[in-house]
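Researcher: Structure prediction, please.
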Amino acid sequence: MKVGSRQLIRDINNNIVLETIIEHAPISRAELSKTLGLTKATISSIVRDLLDHKLIMEVGSGSADIGRKPIMLEFNQNAGYSICIDLGVEIISIMLTDLKGEKIATKKQMFLK
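Model: Predicted structure follows.
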């Protein structure tokens, strides 16, 4: 049986939290904790790290019947960009996307033989 290091487990938890935020946004820290079965302290630490790296953002308050209103979290799809290049025989196509794959810009250049 292979045992993971603390860093490996933390990386796995970071990825799971980020994926859950992407899929279920907007979502609160408490909802993340309940959904994933991780402690509130673990969620808070991971969320702080993701906020520091600008991968997620706080987007306002949610509703609550009792107590403080939760701060809702969303994925920051503008935290980085991806460039896709298609090298064809006669045409080169370039597309810029955000981290969710939404198209930002495209450019096609035709080459004559």
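Model: The longest helix spans residues 6-24.
Researcher: Thanks, that helps.
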